[in-house]
Specification:
This protein is of the alpha/beta class and 370 residues long. Helix content is 44%, strand content 16%.
Length: 370
C-alpha cells in the first residue's frame, strides 16, 4: 500500500514516528511524508520515505492561510493518490481530512492534544468544534491519546463511536529511553522541557521558582525548549532574557537528543494546561525520573500521584511550588522508588509497540474493506 503520514513538522515525524515508519516499510508499504521542510527532512528521505513539502503554520488560525493549506493538501493528495492517509496534530486532522474526503481517500486521524481551544467558550472555539465535526465525518478511524479527549469527542458527537479508539499517546521507545542509574544532584535539579508558550505552564513554573527562591530553597531550575515569540501564546524574548540574566532559571536552549538532560535532572516538571499524552513525561518516566505535572487530561494519565510523581493544581503556582518543595525534600529511597514506578508504568501501559500494532491493524482492516 501507498501510505501518507502528515504532520506539522518533519522534526515531529523523525522524532516520534520513525519506528512506525520502519515497521511499515518492513511490511512492504510505500511511505510518503507530508510536512514543512526543516533540518530533519533529509532524515526522512534517507530512511526511504518520499517527501512532499507543504506550507503549514502551526502557530495560530488564519482563514486565508488555512484555506491555502486545504487547497495545497488537496493538490498533494490528488497527485500522490495514496491508499490511506495518516493525520497527526490539529491542522492535518482538520484540513487534511477535508482534502482527503473530497478525493475519497480513507484517513486515520490521531488527536494528539486539543490545545486550549476546548478550554474556552468563544467564537474561535465554536469554529474549531464545527471544523472538527465536519472533517471527522470523512475519517475512517480516529485514535485518541487519553480517555478524557475520547469522552469529550464522543459526548459532543464530534466523532462516531465506531470510528474511535484509544492508544497510549504516541508510545515510548523503551529501548531508546533506558532507566537512568539513580543519583541525587546537589543542589537538587528541576527541569521543564517545553516550547516556551504559556499553554505549557511556563509562567506558572517561573512564579513557583521565584517563590521557592524567596523561601531560600537551594536548587537548580532549568528550562529546555525552543523560544517561540511569534506564537499567539508565545513568551517574548525580552521576558525570557530577564529570567536568564537575573538567575531565575538556567536556559538550556534546544537539543536533538533530550536524554542527556533528562538523565542529569532529579525531577521533570510540566505544569501544562492540557495535553494528549505529553511526550516529555513519557520520556522522563521511561528514564526512571520522578515527575511533577498538572492534574489535567493527558498529564494525569502519565503521572499517578505519589506513585511515579506528584500532581499539582491547574494554574496554581503556589501549589506547584509546594509540590516542588515536597519533591526536593523526599529522601533518596523515595525519589528512587518514584522513578522505578514510572519506568514500570511505561513498560505496562505506554510501550510504543502497542501503538504501532494498533495502526498496523487499522491499516490492514482498511485494506480488506477496499
Amino acid at each position: 500500500m501507498k501510505i501518507a503520514i502528515v504532520l506539522n513538522t518533519s522534526w515531529n515525524i523523525y522524532n516520534f514516528r520513525m519506528n512506525f515508519i520502519r515497521s511499515l516499510r518492513a511490511r512492504g508499504h510505500e511511505v510518503h511524508t507530508v510536512a514543512p521542510v526543516d533540518d530533519f527532512t533529509h532524515f526522512l528521505t534517507e530512511a526511504g520515505c518520499v517527501h512532499h513539502p507543504v506550507r503549514m503554520d502551526s502557530r495560530g488560525a488564519s482563514p486565508v492561510k488555512d484555506a491555502a493549506l486545504l487547497i495545497e493538501l488537496w493538490s498533494i493528495y490528488r497527485k500522490m493518490r495514496p491508499d490511506v492517509i495518516l493525520h497527526y496534530t490539529i491542522k492535518p486532522n482538520v484540513y487534511g481530512s477535508l482534502a482527503a474526503g473530497l478525493l475519497g481517500i480513507p484517513t486515520i486521524n490521531n488527536v494528539c492534544g486539543l490545545g486550549t481551544v476546548f478550554l474556552k467558550n468563544n467564537l474561535v472555539s465554536a469554529i474549531a468544534i464545527f471544523l472538527y465535526k465536519i472533517s471527522f465525518r470523512f475519517a475512517s478511524k480516529v485514535f485518541f491519546q487519553n480517555p478524557d479527549d475520547l469522552s469529550l469527542f464522543l459526548n459532543t458527537k464530534l466523532v462516531a463511536p465506531e470510528k474511535a479508539d484509544l492508544i497510549p499517546g504516541s508510545g515510548i521507545d523503551l529501548n531508546k529511553f533506558q532507566p537512568a542509574a539513580f543519583k541525587r544532584n546537589s543542589p537538587f535539579t528541576f527541569l521543564l522541557i517545553s516550547r516556551l508558550i504559556t499553554d505549557k505552564g511556563v509562567l506558572d513554573y517561573i512564579k513557583a521558582v521565584k517563590h521557592l527562591r524567596a523561601q531560600g530553597m537551594n536548587a537548580r531550575f532549568q528550562i529546555l525548549g525552543a523560544k517561540d515569540p511569534l506564537h499567539k501564546r508565545g513568551i517574548q524574548l525580552k521576558t525570557i532574557d530577564e529570567w536568564i540574566s537575573n538567575g531565575t532559571i538556567e536556559y538550556l536552549g534546544t537539543t536533538s537528543d533530550v536524554r542527556q538532560f533528562i538523565y542529569q535532572a532529579d525531577c521533570i516538571v510540566l505544569p501544562s494546561y492540557r495535553e494528549g499524552a505529553p511526550r516529555t513525561l513519557l520520556e522522563a518516566a521511561s528514564s526512571s525520573k520522578p515527575i511533577i505535572a498538572t492534574d489535567v487530561p493527558g498529564c494525569h494519565h502519565v503521572v499517578r500521584h505519589q506513585f511515579n510523581g506528584l500532581l499539582c493544581k491547574l494554574k496554581d503556582p503556589e501549589d506547584l511550588a509546594q509540590k516542588m518543595d515536597t519533591m526536593a525534600n523526599f529522601d533518596d529511597a523515595t525519589i528512587k522508588k518514584l522513578g522505578e514506578n514510572g519506568r514500570q508504568k511505561m513498560e505496562q501501559e505506554f510501550d510504543e509497540k502497542v501503538v504501532i500494532n494498533k495502526y498496523i491493524k487499522a491499516i490492514a482492516n482498511l485494506s480488506k474493506s477496499a
